[in-house]
Amino acid sequence: MPDRITQLLEGCSQRDSQAAADLLPLVYDELRGLAHSYLAGERRDHTLQATALVHEAYLRLVKQEDVHWQSRAHFFAIAAQLMRRVLVDYARSRLREKRGGGAVKISLSETLDIPQKTVIDFLALDEALDGLAKLDLRQSQIVEIRFFGGLSIQETAETLALSPATVKRDWVTAKAWLFHEITRSTRS
Predict the structure, then answer these.
(1) Angstrom distance (rounded) from CA 60 to CA 4
(2) Residue 37: C-alpha distances to residues 13, 124, 134, 153 (Å)
(3) Under-50 pLDDT residues of the chain
(4) Per residue in 134-171, pLDDT tens?
(5) Among residues 11, 160, 146, which one has the least CA distance to residue 81?
(6) How many Å is the Cα radius of gyration of the chain?
(7) Dihedral, CA atoms, 163, 167, 168, 170, nearest 10 degrees?
């Protein structure tokens, strides 16, 4: 199936609407799984559902212009970025509605080595990732791809044209930095 996904992505790069339609069923379950894991720590009455997150991210994906999909991993890396943007946009709109209260929160799993029961403000995570990007863009991209895109060390390395050892080293460093920044910002 990865070869089929890559073929369809090439079709999407050439603006083939049938390829975009054929692609969704092949990637939907994986995108929905990622979205579900992001929203798993939310309160039960949270209004953004995994399905809505997937649909919004997918719409943004297929509307991308001048994207030449390199591989399945590249597609999921871009999907990760777009899901992050959707979640941050949603959190910001909720904050505007509540005049500063009720930030959207997600539970970060062991991917960031934060205790499972810890619930983190999504805007704090976004702010920390933006801060990390100013210090080390590559580390920020690695976190985004691994956490939001669900890609392995090897897939991340291929996507960013790095060695797996470099990705692993940067991943460990970035997780530690983010953990420090997020816990510091939530204590303030």
Answers:
(1) 21
(2) 28, 18, 27, 19
(3) 99-111, 114-119
(4) 999 999 999 988 887 778 899 889 888 999 999 999 99
(5) 146
(6) 17
(7) 130
Angle between helix 72-98 and 122-135 (nearest 10): 130
The residue type found at 16 is D
Predicted pLDDT at 42: 60
46 Cβ neighbours under 8 A, 6+ residues apart: 39, 104
Distance CA 167, CA 156 (A): 7
- Whole-angstrom Cα distance, residue 85 to residue 59? 13
Dist. CA 48–CA 52, nearest whole Å: 7
CA pseudo-torsion sign 49, 55, 57, 60: negative
d(CA 158, CA 17): 27
